[in-house]
Amino acid sequence: MARAALKDRNHMIRQIWGMAKELSMTEDELRAAMYQAAGKESMRLCSDKDLYLILCHLGRLKDLKKTQLGYATPQQLWKIRELEKQLGWTDNSKRLRKFMEKYSEIQKLEWLKFKQAGDLIESLKKVLKRERSKKDSQEKLQKA
């Protein structure tokens, strides 16, 4: 049991160093982030829970770094894909792309800026609302 816990601990430490490398952090910057997340400056002093908190903190920094570049966040891209599913557009990949080209003049989701992604989400919500109201009115006509 102790060996398994030690393996998990070493794995988390490797993940922390890997994430720090992805974020181009110096050792001092990593220690500052560790102190911010867990209140400790050394990984040896950290419990497994502290290491997990540090990993989560670095993950948030990674997402924030992507957002600061001005592009759509992973959450925005996820929401766009969810709305695409709700609209039933997943069977035809061109449908969302053509919609984006028409309203935002962007051809790929990955190229969307933060504001453009927000506007696209709102447009897709409106389309979904219209589709649902059409479906409801057709059902009412069929019942009558």
UniProtKB/TrEMBL annotation:
InterPro entries: Phage_Mu_Gp16. It comes from the Bacteria. Pfam families: GemA. This is GemA protein. It comes from Syntrophobotulus glycolicus (strain DSM 8271 / FlGlyR).
